[in-house]
Amino acid sequence: MENRISILWWIAGLLVIGLIYLLSPILTPFLIAAILAYIANPLVNKIDALQIKGYSPSRAVASLLVILLMLAVLMLILLIVVPLVQKEVVLLLQKLPAYFNTAKTNFEPWLQKNFGVGIDIDFAQIQQVLTENWKTAGNFAKNIAQTLSTKGLAIIGWLANLILIPLVLFYLLLDWNIIIDKVSHLIPRQLIAKTKEIASEIDAVLAEFLRGQLTVMLLMSVFYATGLWLAGLDVAVPVGMLSGLLGFIPYLGFGLGMVMGLFSGLLQYGNITDLIPILIVFGLGQVLESMVLTPWLVGDRIGLHPLIVIFALMAGGQLFGFAGVLLALPASAAIAVGFRHAKQSYLASKFYNGQ
Predict the structure, then answer these.
(1) 109 in any annotated domain
(2) Contact status, residue 172 vs residue 59, Cβ threshold 8 Å
(3) Of 13, 75, 328, 343, whose CB is crowded by the most CB atoms within 10 A?
(4) Helix, strand counts (H, E) of the chain
(5) Could you tell me the pTM of the whole model?
């Protein structure tokens, strides 16, 4: 009987995985909303439990307030970041001839000496093309009109998904505790204690990872952008932000940001010794992230090796696209908890101990 029940559970699990795979093209807004709901639910619970002069806000009001707060934070970030990035890119385009001349002055003799080739590129034409394209990219109204006329259905689908996220988020936050209770009632009673134990560990791991990693990413973006700006790099803001925001993939944000920073610095300064401040910024950033912020804000409880994280992201993207990338790390952290419990059961089993 128990074997039959186990087989049924395995079949049900495989059917759920297959269904997720088939529905992956439409899962992205639901997954984004679910992740945001998981992160924001504690705040909704606190607002829902408030007592202000005898008035307690309803769950619906608390959910709406939290969603509005998240939208306000997102808009504030966009209003601050987009003008800064646009200003930096315009400045970079204006200085391109000087950068190209510096590169030509420093690299052409070396290329001529070692390979017998020179640099024969029309830098003025490159600058003109980039500037015109950037100006065209800045004409949002014209671009939107042209895109709607050629790719109307795709844009409508994208906008529908974008609008769907806060709608799904609202209903998830409204009924989050009810959904959790209903799921727990479906679990067989003989498994409920162990399931709650594993679920509690998964919740702790995901809470530390999602909230902690987000904080680390934001702090490192500010650190890199500020440090590179103090080092005199013209493209400090975009390089710094990219380095920090890609920090959820171990070493990718640091490595890519350092390569971009060094390359930009070499074009800007034309002297290798002037790159030392950039190296110092990234060196200090790596020490700050790995030895201070990550242990403090994320901790060692996640237990995911960097190679596992990279593989999980690639596998999730390959199987489910962008939705898979969103789900990869939380799912990997949950699976890691399951494997730890499976390992404990295996080490305590009669088979392992030869009984």
Answers:
(1) yes
(2) no
(3) 328
(4) 14, 0
(5) 0.63
